[in-house]
Design goal:
The complex is a heterodimer of chains A (about 350) and B (about 500). Chain A is mainly α. Chain A has a domain of about 210 residues. Chain A contains 14 helices and 2 strands, in the order αααααααββααααααα. In chain A, strands 1-2 form a two-stranded antiparallel ribbon. In chain A, helix 7 packs across helix 11 and helix 9 crosses helix 11. Chain A starts with a helix and ends in a 14-residue tail after the last helix. Helices cover about 35% and strands about 25% of the residues of chain B. Chain B has about 500 residues and is an alpha/beta fold. Chain B folds into 3 domains: about 240 residues, Rossmann fold; about 170 residues, P-loop containing nucleotide triphosphate hydrolases (Rossmann fold, 3-Layer(aba) Sandwich); about 80 residues, no CATH class. In chain B, helix 4 runs parallel beside helix 6 and helix 5 crosses helix 6. In chain B, strand 21 and strand 22 form a beta hairpin. The two termini of chain B are about 40 Å apart. The chains are: A mainly alpha (about 350), B alpha/beta (about 500).
């Protein structure tokens, strides 16, 4: 138990946690509303989509890859399902979620196959996918919003557990999105921690050559990571429509940076093999807290981007400096000890 | 019972050859290992040890006609999984572990795959890894991340992983190369223990004194050929060295004709983890050969002279003046040139043409009013290509399209263009065909005779013997011998490269 505690203190998650506390304390001092239950629930609700997407991105980053097509994949899911709802009045939530997962799964699978089978660099493959999908979306929607979606999807987005009225007219409770996020967290944790599939992804990310030597199918593992991420985006897309009650084809422009940022803030290494669900969760919280604190302090949201960008660069620089130091101190030649004196 | 067990043959190879396009990596190898023996595998760099190991591991398929027998049973096609299933476990020099996973997972991971688990059974992982480490008698935190451990402990984890597999033959590729002497003792204790449990071990090492202290038999390879197997008790270092280098081929020695004053003096330079107390001097018109085994610190030392690997202490004098280059640009300005070991990655810009490559380091000299004078540049590069006899002498041909030998000449041309006082070449004929090799040798000799001071790092002893004037032999970061090249033999060099001669002299 003691050893476990020690390891946690030394871990990256612990340092993210520490920064999180600092931000929370500072935010509360600036505006006590920050720490209120209603505010915290609001923060979690509005960042649940980021959180769900970050689970997919985490798995991709663990393989040593990256996904620049988050925006396109989310837009495709929301627009296609939105069009279905608008055109036919279809409003079965379970089927919508399944459809979303299937659409995201298809684009994710495409990314995965390009990276693993054709050997395209992940950034190129996913940028290409993003460009194609976004072009198609613009052609298809003309950039117009899809409004007047069935009431059921919006009502679902408003649903809260343990809801009670606080007297002033607003309802306080645990938003349904938090539950959805929690389920995805546990699912991803289980996959990475308890299944051989997840452990194989971790192993391959740390050392692909060794992974091949012990007989892992690294191509299939890589493909799976992008497929998994696509499904997560699909799930996130439907959740987002529920929150917004409408579909904006351009809602996700630049969103991939937020997702990558949250994962990196959570301590994952871009080189692969290193990163955790807990860390990424803390990274999302940190991201959410910073933006919420700035909003509560009436600071422009532009600053939020600047500060988050700065923290990401700092975090990655810190890793790189550490790596360079280790490399420099590495022994290349095992030098023979000095001659024994006295001949 | 263990005695009877240990005498049994575990694996037998007969007539194993392996041909790669243009290279005979292995020719008719016969080799066997018994259960309960430590079998040393020895040979110079490029003798075929790694290829042989890869055949055992199932990574390379031998040419038709080879016989592989494991436990008395003939195996027709040995794949990596088949090899592991039959109990052969290779511990490569890089260990093949997973740096970001924990110790226990590294030990038990492949076993979980073997059992076709879908979910990880953490309890089983813990038990299996604990048991493996207790067999080794070492205490390592099971939950520590692998990359937080020292090299020696990572190696123990790799051995523990092999034990989980119930391996019958452990192949260890240079296991002591990154260990301190105390750690080597511990490793040998474990190896002896495994031997007494009936496991066979193939131990590859360059260090003959270490080999003699632990192996039961040893097999020598040379140029991909089987030279012989000896019982450790019935042979000695001299016989093994002779087997390693082969019969002396009478070689034309091209000595210098125009050796002048001292140009470069290196005095007691050291760098932690690279080289230690290195002292030598270099004269005008001289070729100084630096040899030794891979990992002896030769490249690290010459890179120090070129500013790529600045020493922690010591002095370097160039024409009597102290210098301390901190970057290649400084070294170049001082008149030092370095032709690196791998021309593909360090020597050439492969996608660019010969002319751009040759004039890369002197581009500034063609500059007039901030513009490059291309006709001048072409003229100079064609001159250099003709001088070095680059074939074809097309300045606009992409560097990647020249043959290995001509690529090497282009790199040399690039550095000649800077008109250096000291030219350092690292493995200058690596991967170059025989004809081009002779040409490069003649070229280096000619450059020296014209007054340049040349340092040539090379693992090829015939090359060292044929064109050097003096030879330095490095071993484990130190200079372990300095000789006049004339009359020197491969045996004497090899002796200094593989044995700690100082200790021997001290003991005598």
């Amino acid at each position: 138990m003691n050893g476990k505690l020690k390891r946690f203190v030394a871990s990256k998650e612990a340092s993210v946690f520490l920064i999180l506390i600092v931000v929370a304390v500072a935010a509360t001092l600036m505006n006590p509303t920050f720490l209120s239950f209603a505010n915290l629930m609001d923060v979690l609700k509005s960042n649940s989509v980021l959180g769900i997407c970050s689970m997919g991105m985490l798995v991709i980053i663990l393989t040593g890859g990256i996904d620049a097509s988050v925006c396109g994949q989310l837009a495709l899911v929301t627009v296609l399902t939105g069009q279905l709802m608008l055109g036919t009045g279809f409003d079965n939530l379970v089927v919508l979620y399944i459809l979303g997962i299937l659409i995201g799964g298809c684009t994710g699978l495409g990314n995965g196959l390009m990276v693993s089978r054709l050997g395209l660099p992940p950034i190129i493959a996913t940028l290409g996918t993003n460009s194609i999908v976004m072009g198609f979306i613009k052609y298809y929607t003309n950039g117009e919003w899809l409004n007047n979606l069935p009431a059921r999807i919006g009502n679902f987005g408003l649903y809260k557990f343990f809801a009670y009225s606080d007297g002033s007219g607003s309802t306080i409770g645990v938003p349904v999105q938090l539950l959805l996020y929690a389920v995805m967290l546990v699912l991803t944790w289980f996959m990475l921690r308890r299944t051989m599939l997840g452990r194989s992804i971790m192993a391959m990310g740390g050392n692909p050559v060794s992974a091949q030597r012990i007989g892992l199918n690294t191509k299939n593992l890589t493909t799976f990571a992008y497929l998994f991420a696509g499904c997560m985006y699909g799930f996130a897309g439907i959740t987002y429509t529920g929150i917004m009650k409408c579909v904006d084809p351009n809602a996700f422009l630049g969103f991939e940076m937020d997702v990558i940022g949250a994962v990196v803030l959570g301590g994952a290494l871009m080189t692969g093999g290193s990163g955790s669900v807990l860390g990424t969760f803390l990274g999302v919280l940190l991201f959410a807290f910073i933006s919420n604190a700035l909003t509560l302090a009436h600071i422009s949201t532009y600053w939020q981007k600047i500060i988050v960008g700065g923290i990401i660069l700092l975090a990655v620089s810190f890793d790189m400096i550490k790596l360079h130091r280790e490399e420099r101190l590495q022994t290349k030649v095992d030098i023979e000890p000095k001659e024994v004196s006295g001949e | 019972m263990p005695g009877a067990e240990s005498a049994r043959l575990f694996i037998r190879l007969e007539n194993v050859s392996k041909t790669f396009p243009g290279v005979n990596a292995l020719t008719n190898i016969n080799f066997d290992v018994r259960g309960g023996e430590i079998h040393g595998l020895i040979g110079e760099n490029g003798a075929g040890k790694s290829t042989l190991i890869k055949v055992l591991a199932g990574v390379h398929k031998p040419d038709p006609g080879a016989v592989i027998e494991i436990d008395g049973e003939r195996v027709d096609s040995l794949t990596p999984t088949e090899s592991m299933r039959r109990g052969i476990m290779v511990i490569y020099q890089d260990f093949s572990l997973f740096p970001t996973l924990t110790v226990k997972e590294n030990i038990a991971f492949s076993e979980q795959i073997e059992r076709k688990r879908r979910l990880v059974n953490w309890k089983e992982v813990e038990e299996v890894s604990k048991r493996a480490l207790s067999i080794l008698g070492v205490d390592i935190d099971l939950n520590a991340r692998l990359n937080t451990l020292s090299t020696a402990r990572q190696q123990l984890v790799a051995i523990a992983r092999a034990l989980v597999y119930d391996s019958k033959l452990l192949v260890m590729d240079e296991p002591t190369s990154a260990l301190s002497s105390g750690e080597v003792e511990n490793l040998f204790r474990i190896m002896r223990d495994l031997r007494s449990r009936g496991m066979g071990i193939i131990f590859i090492s360059h260090k003959l004194d270490e080999l003699f202290s632990i192996v039961d038999r040893m097999t020598v390879l040379r140029d991909g050929m089987y030279i012989g197997t000896r019982n450790a008790g019935e042979t000695d270092v001299n016989e093994i060295i002779t087997m390693m280098v082969g019969r002396e081929i009478k070689q034309e020695h091209m000595g210098g004709t125009n050796i002048g004053e001292i140009v470069l003096e290196v005095q007691d330079i050291s760098k932690r983890g690279n080289f230690s107390n290195v002292t030598f001097n270099l004269r005008r018109g001289e070729i100084l050969g630096i040899t030794g085994l891979v990992g002896a610190g030769r490249t690290e030392t010459v890179r120090a002279l070129f500013g790529l690997n600045p020493p922690d202490s010591g002095t370097i004098l160039l024409e009597g003046k102290p210098i301390a280059p901190k970057s290649p640009a400084e070294a170049q300005a001082l008149g030092i040139a370095y032709v690196p070991e791998s021309r593909q990655t360090e020597g050439l810009v492969m996608q660019q043409d010969a002319e751009s490559n040759i004039t890369l380091s002197i581009l500034k000299t063609f500059q007039k009013n901030m513009l490059i004078q291309f006709p001048e540049r072409s003229k100079r590069s064609v001159e250099l290509m003709q001088q070095l006899n680059v074939k074809p002498a097309y300045p606009f041909m992409q560097a990647a399209k020249f043959s290995g030998g001509n690529q090497q000449k282009i790199v040399v041309a690039k550095w000649l263009a800077t008109k250096p006082k000291v030219l350092i070449v690292d493995e200058p004929t690596n991967g170059v065909d025989v004809g081009a090799k002779t040409e490069i040798h003649q070229l280096l000799r000619q450059l020296a005779d014209e007054g340049m001071a040349v340092i040539m790092v090379s693992s090829e002893l015939p090359e060292i013997l044929s064109i050097s004037d003096r030879v330095l032999v490095m071993r484990r970061g130190r200079i372990n011998g300095e000789f006049e090249a004339k009359g020197l033999t491969q045996e004497r060099i090899m002796e200094r490269a593989v044995l700690d001669t100082r200790r021997k002299e001290a003991g005598a």
